[in-house]
Amino acid sequence: MGKDRTQNQNDKIQQLERNGEDADGQTLTTNQGLRINDDQNSLRAGVRGPSLLEDFHLREKITHFDHERIPERVVHARGSAAHGFFQVYESMAPYTKAKFLQNQSVQTPVFVRFSTVVGSRGSADLARDVRGFAVKFYTEEGIFDLVGNNIPVFFIQDALKFPDLVHAIKPEPHHEMPQAASAHDTFWDFISLMPESMHMIMWVMSDRAIPRSFRMMEGFGVHTFRLVNDKGRSRFVKFHWKPVLGLHSVVWDEAQKISGLDPDFHRRDLWESIEQGAYPEWELGIQIVEEKDEHKFDFDLLDPTKLIPEELVPVKRIGKLTLNRNPDNFFAETEQVAFHPGHLVPGIDFSDDPLLQGRLFSYTDTQLIRLGGPNFHEIPINRPVVPVHNNQRDGHMRQTINHGRVSYQPNSLGGGCPMQAGREMGGFITYAETLDGGKVRARSEKFFDHFSQAALFWNSQSHPEKAHIVQALRFELGKVEVPAVRTRMVGLLAQVDKTLAGLVAQGLGIPVPAKVDGPLNLSVPADGDIKRFQPKSRVPSLDRSPALSMASTVKDTIKTRRIAVLAADGVDATAVGRMKKALMAEGAQVKVVAPRLGVLSGTKGAEINIDISFLTAGSVLFDAVYIPGGEQSIETLKGDAKALMFVKEAYLHCKAIAATDAGIDLLLAAHPAQDKTALSHAKGVQPNERTLLRVDEGIIASRSDKNGHVAARFIHAIAQHRHWE
Ligand code: HEM
Fold first, then answer.
1. What is the DSSP string of 419-466?
2. Which of the listed residues 19, 241, 402, 428 has the most CB atoms within 10 Å of its CB?
3. Which of 362, 364, 370, 379 to mutate for ligand 1's pocket (most ligand atoms within 8 Å of CB)?
């Protein structure tokens, strides 16, 4: 990057374009550039004879096809990505010398990949799982990767346990089941013996593990890192991504149905939002801890199973990430991108978190085999936007043609080049942390409080969030077949909260064990020192942390929300038009869903295009439902089981529903019997009602909506996301 110009979001795009290929108006060729005359018939000895070995076109085409697949990622195999840029709000010079965090006019290009962890490349997006949130910053000082997740803590404290964790959660090795699911014996067997995972388990059983959209989830660097300023002063830092559209999830029943109706739900949502110009945005937040405060918390900053409550250290929002361009080619970009938590720039450094330290080894190691050799940094998506000069040479698929005969340091024949960069030239200098201590296989004492923050998370949840956690645990443990594993898990939950354990046990039809059996972690070392591995009792530093609940997230927008308008022939065209206009003015997407595809004839001779039929749509693919009037339309829909199911499910998933005029009759027809009575009696939905009825927060109904009041109420209701009452 030249010194005299500001870095721009297009820098990476322009670099990628140099590798682009566009076949428009071109002739078909072999890989050697030879023009191909016939791509329909292989070369044969006679029209009915055998194929000939000399058919180089056939051989080249089939050989290339045979080698199209590469190994999928050992974890995070299922993912989707997009390009964009990052811009800091104001200089972060007091904290870090990282150049991309100095100047608000700098737009640092980024490539961001979201993923699930457990499932294979082709698995469904809505699995209950952690989501990866990996950001590659192409800065003017080289690449910085922030390889995080959507949950701020992790299952384990030491990298040595990562292969065990992943073996336990992946499909069981004898029959390769289940796909993309933690609900099976080996996972819960492992967890029930790893009390350090209890905090993470609370998060993974919460709705955070089934996001509404990648665009509506938080991201976290998880580990404690360091920021270092130009005076060499270091502070500890935790990184956060805060979604501008707020933090929203679906419910588990929906997630399971979405997995069937649209396994690409999150991928499609990301792609379509960017295509429509509704660019996803997050703010980057940092929590800063001074070096002198390292030991002031009752947990260890190096322990990745702990977070720093925002009430103790506020999150300072320092910049914005915007995703504004879809990749041109999934394989070349999304599949071949190689993230690494060890890709740093001057001004950012590691902490001694033992999980992070192990990760620093793992990523390059796995990419060597996944991407086929040591030159994967030359793949266009992985190249920095600054030049690379070093004495590394050769290897599979080397593309750089290094000039000259010098490939060593020190040298005189090359004038000493490439030369080392001093501090003033932007050379990376590792933070000179002072270390003491013997070589030991041991953890710090503070790591052994496994339950305080799990309890903090539980105590901070709203009532519906708690209910969902209980349901999730009942589901997951209900799939476990070995009774002892269930019992051990309920015993561990009792260490977090007795009510939680009781509710889960009730669903499983077992008692809460009075006492947890034996050592909670059976991995007793050879010297038999069980104490070393036993959890300590809780030392809560805080009773509640409102920031841990999703209930208080942003609820002031319906931008990009998908609203279904249920209609059939004879639908009230004026009502449809008015509602559509109001919703779209707020940035929502409106889709007309009908019993068939084609065009509907609405009232007053209006023609209305149908977007989707009930055959391919389900209410789970939408955020809210509007039922316009029109006697004939409603009569048709009342006789359509799929239309009734659509409304009923939207209601059961607590989504906003609006109905006008005869539309109210479909709403009533679809309601479960007990709720129907409540709805019509208690709130007075009467056939001749003339006034606007706000039946409850989530259901807005009116027999006469001449002034269009329903739309305004409906928009407010959709922005609330869900109406648990
Ligand atoms: C010792 C613990 C861990 C190990 C050994 C490990 C290892 C791996 C490996 C081998 C991959 C596949 C990389 C590739 O093929 O390109 C991967 C991907 C990933 N890991 Fe980890 N991981 C660990 C912990 C974590 C943690 C704590 C986080 C979150 C903070 C995390 C976030 C990710 C993400 C987001 C990806 C996907 C990157 C992408 O989109 O390509 N991992 N990890």
1. PPP-GGGT--------------S---GGGG--SHHHHHHHHHS-HHHH
2. 241
3. 362
